[in-house]
Design a protein that fits this description.
The protein is α+β, with helices and mostly antiparallel strands. It contains 16 helices and 15 strands. The protein has helices at 8-72, 75-78, 84-97, 129-137, 183-189, 214-217, 224-231, 273-276, 278-309, 311-324, 339-383, 401-406, 418-422, 427-443, 488-534, 542-570, and strands at residues 101-107, 113-116, 141-147, 154-163, 170-179, 197-202, 207-210, 236-242, 248-257, 263-272, 385-391, 397-399, 447-454, 460-471, 477-486.
Length: 571
């Protein structure tokens, strides 16, 4: 629902709510900002803790590497003939001084166990990762999670080759098995928050140690989220994921490498977000409570005072509804001196009076327009004038009913396009008509023309056409509006009149010629009469006079017949 469709009272209440809305938005913003800060702090703390644990592990790795390197250089291991009993005692002393290891032992290059700090039965380490890495790199190596075949305890193996100085071959492989239970010491000195934990994973993503669920997950692969995060690690970082208990947790991680080799261990620290956001949530709830109180106070004020404020407004609304229902005689009866309400009442009353007068004028104009429309329709129908329009934007052609009558077709047969209209127009005229259309559109000038059409009933008609160009406010032509009317009868009448005129002119020319001949003949005969009359005195006999009389009478009758013949042709 749009704001303008709400009642004025509703808008007043809504404005009160909108006034208090910034406080709520501010509380939400503060919450998001505090959570962002707390999240960033928790992220930095998790990464920092993971980094510190990683440093401790790196130190442990470095000290183990140094210890194995020193052992490898002892004379007991450089003898040409090694003594396993001597090495057993050596390793026993080393283990007593380094209780973080579960066992210290040595294996032959083929992987068979050779000596150890504790008694053992023959076994092989040839299937272990660290053994293969030592043979491949001939240097210090770290293995994956494993259970010691001597102590059956969860361990992480460190290995160092003993190089024979005489032939530069691997003589022995020293192994120190780090007891994973020692990680509990790290937990005791860590600064983890309540509900937080940390875990170690080997290169394959198997759990080496977990600060809370050690026995449950030891040696198992981490969750898919952990596996995915480990697979994409580039050094250190943080991510959000769901914990085993379903709560949202923040995970900080770091990977541990042996110099430039591939990583052999991942440290992951997790913290529940509910603990990290505890202070921010408390502040948010406090701000929301204050905002709700402000809203309630605003609503109370708006509800208490709205009747007083909107008394005259209700009157104005009532009068406006009467106006809407067509009662233009209604008036507000509100004191015009009441500030904005009075001014509005004055405007409404003035508007009603003006609208009442305009309504009367509109009725009169409507009646006159109706009379003119009826007369126009009578004139158009009597003259059989068809009206058409060509929309230049959609390229559609529209005909009125009289156009279909002119073309002896039906609306269902007309496709409403200019090319289809051109099919009705005589081929000798269609090209010219289309050129005239486009010329008028280009120069935006009205035009008169005519053309021949062939109707659906196969009749030919002569059509007179007048059209004008309609443009938009930018001067662009948008449509062509025109009229057609049948001038076939007029063309036929003009043709008949032309033929009649030619016949008359031909007859007049012929009569003129005959009259000239007749007059010439009469002139000759009259000349003979005059000449003969001059000779009457010379006639001696009566017979000559009688003969002259006959000749004169015959010439007169011939002339009269010729004149009568001409008069008949004139009629």
């Amino acid at each position: 629902m749009k704001f303008r469709n709400i009642s004025l009272k509703g808008q007043f209440v809504l404005i009160i709510l909108l006034i208090t809305m910034p406080f709520i938005l501010l509380a939400v913003y503060n919450l998001s900002e505090e959570k962002r800060k707390e999240s960033e702090h928790a992220k930095n703390l998790a990464i920092s803790l993971a980094r510190n644990i990683g440093i401790q592990q790196k130190n442990s790795e470095a000290s183990t590497r140094q210890m194995l390197s020193l052992i490898a250089k002892l004379p007991e291991l450089q003898l040409e003939e090694l003594n396993s009993e001597m090495l057993n005692l050596l390793f026993k002393d080393v283990l007593s001084e380094n209780p973080q290891f579960a066992v210290v032992l040595a294996a032959l290059p083929n992987g068979d166990a050779y000596a150890a700090a504790i008694p053992f039965k023959p076994f092989s380490i040839s299937d272990r990762k660290y053994y293969k890495d030592v043979l491949r790199t001939r240097s210090f190596s770290v293995g994956e999670f494993a259970k010691s075949r001597l102590t059956n305890r969860a361990v992480l193996h460190y290995a160092m080759p003993v190089i024979d100085f005489n032939n530069n071959n691997i003589k022995l492989i020293l192994i120190a098995s780090f007891d994973l239970a020692q990680y509990q010491n790290i937990l005791s000195v860590s600064t983890l928050h309540e509900g937080s934990d940390f875990a170690f994973y080997d290169y394959a993503g198997r759990l080496l140690y977990h600060s809370r669920n050690q026995q449950k997950y030891l040696g198992k692969r981490g969750s898919p989220e952990i596996q995915q995060a480990i697979g994409s690690l580039t050094g250190e970082g943080a991510y959000y994921s769901e914990g085993e208990d379903g709560s949202k947790r923040l995970y900080g991680f770091i990977r541990i490498n042996i110099e430039n080799d591939s990583p052999y261990m991942y440290v992951v620290v997790s913290t529940p977000l509910s603990k990290a956001f505890n202070n921010a949530d408390n502040a948010f709830y406090r701000n929301i409570a204050l905002s709700i109180l402000a809203v309630l106070i605003g609503l109370f004020i708006s509800l208490y005072y709205k009747n007083f404020i909107f008394k005259n407004v209700d009157k104005l609304v009532k009068i406006a509804n009467q106006f809407k229902d067509g009662d233009l005689t209604a008036r507000t009866n509100v004191d015009y001196s009441l500030g904005e309400t009075g001014s509005l009442a004055r405007a409404l009353d003035t508007m009603a009076e003006s609208m009442q007068n305009r309504e009367t004028e509109r009725d009169l104009v409507h009646k006159n327009l109706q009379v003119l429309t009826e007369r126009f329709e009578i004139a158009v129908n009597s003259a059989k004038i068809g009206i058409w329009e060509w929309d230049l934007l959609t390229h559609k052609v529209f005909w009125d009913q009289q156009m279909y009558v002119l073309y002896n077709t039906e609306s269902l047969n007309f496709k409403g396009s200019l090319p289809y209209w051109m099919k009705y127009i005589h081929p000798e005229d269609s090209v010219r008509f289309e050129e005239e259309l486009h010329h008028s559109i280009r120069y935006k000038k009205p035009h008169k023309t005519s053309f021949r059409i062939k109707t659906d009933s196969k009749d030919y008609k002569n059509i007179r056409c007048y059209f004008n160009i309609i443009s938009d406010k930018n001067g662009k032509a948008i449509r062509v509006t025109g009229v057609n009317w049948d001038i076939t009868e007029r063309i036929l009448l003009e043709t008949e009149l032309t033929l009649s005129k030619e016949e008359i002119e031909e007859k007049v020319s012929m009569l003129k010629s005959e009259l000239e001949k007749t007059l010439s003949s009469m002139r000759q005969k009259l000349t003979l009469v005059i000449e003969t009359t001059d000779k009457i005195a010379d006639f001696d006999t009566k017979n000559e006079l009688i003969s002259l009389k006959k000749n004169i009478t015959q010439w007169g009758n011939d002339s009269i017949e010729e004149l009568n013949s001409i008069f008949k042709k004139l009629h």
